[in-house]
Design brief:
This protein is mainly α. It has a two-stranded antiparallel ribbon with strand order 1-2. Helix 3 runs parallel beside helix 7, helix 3 packs antiparallel against helix 8 and helix 7 runs antiparallel to helix 8. The radius of gyration is 31 Å and the shape is globular. The C terminus is likely disordered.
Length: about 300
Amino acid sequence: MSLYLTRRIAKLPRRILAETAVELKLLSEKWKLLLAGLIFQYIHGLAARGVHYLHRPGPVLHDLGFLLLPELGKERGYVSEILFASIFVSFALWTFSPFIFKNKKFYTVLIWRRVLAFLVMSQSLRIITFYSTQLPGPNYHCREGSPLARLPPPDNALEVLLINFPRGTLFGCGDLIFSSHMIFTLVFVLTYQKYGSKNFIKVLGWVAAVIQSLLIIASRKHYSVDVVVAWYTVNLVVFFIDKKLSEMPDRSIKTSTLPVTAPKDGKTKEENLKLINGNSHDGLDLRPRTQVNGKNMENGNDDESGKDSNTP
């Protein structure tokens, strides 16, 4: 057993270097889309910061989830954050598993391109929603009497652009419908549901998503409607965006090192070789021909052609 582990560890640096070369090749082709997705994460944070200036604290709205779930309290609000951090880190580590494990099913660059597409569309809908109507925040720092419930007008644009990270994201108010934590959680769970290989982890992911939903409500960080809307919105977004995106190649099927990109002119490699060699016609007749009276004649018709030429 120790010899087996030693051999695997010895091969690990070479495997990491080989996978890095493959992923860098893909990154050189897809970096624009990935960069756009990362920039939008900042735009989403900026929008959440901006709506905090519009937030007006008020009485906590009547909520069925608040009636059914016991309140965790301000001092135990970290419980939901620990679970969310565990889901986030676990998913991120899994997406980089091709660098470590021999059996590979996906490319890290391509799967994050897909994840960012899901996140950007879901977050765009979220921004439109929470700017349409600002509800009084149920979180403790967003209630009446809290100094963090309302933000004074900014002194300059830089104060808004810096979004006071990470404090501004942890103590924001007004960005309620729908839950950003549930967007990330559901996108991660749905992605692993499709591209993951362990059924136990798939089931565990859905259980974690349900527990995360309950903890968010019990922590009074969101109303129940914020969580419910996230569940059906994110699932619909992933369903429709996934249909529009081209399917990722399955690396468990040994074909080529990189996914094949179709030529711009629509011609395959074999067709281009035919054009180069002068054989562009599919049904080209390669039978030998001879010349009779300056005309090309097929060998099978030589005798008949000769007879015809001597006939008056």
